Amino acid sequence: KDDLNMLFTTKTKLYIIVLIYVDDIIIMKDDLDNITKLKHKMMNTFYITKLKDAMIYLKVELHYDKIEIHFHQKQYIDRLLERFNCTSYKLSKVPMNLKTKLQRETRTRAIVFTMYQSLVGHNTYVSQ
């Protein structure tokens, strides 16, 4: 239902959205002058070290141009590829060799579940 980290108001014809996560905050409004006023009010009320355009928020990189904000996770994905030794892998529509014949093994092999679970968890985060 509601995201407890997001505050939203429409007291005027303008909107304001405030996202809070631990010690990071993002303010979104459709009016730059009102964002500046809100920043100054917050700086007078709370100890704030810096208020500037967000570059990374929850591992999502933000890039700004005059009209739009672009989001991507390239740096996060590159780190994952390095962590799991996958930097030399090539893109493929099918993630395995189609000519490989699968066979049942007669003996049990130990599987490193923690690494597998970590990889699945990171992939889930990136794909959402």
TrEMBL record:
Pfam families: RVT_2. It comes from the Eukaryota. Residues 14-96 form the Reverse transcriptase Ty1/copia-type domain. This is Reverse transcriptase Ty1/copia-type domain-containing protein. It comes from Physcomitrium patens.
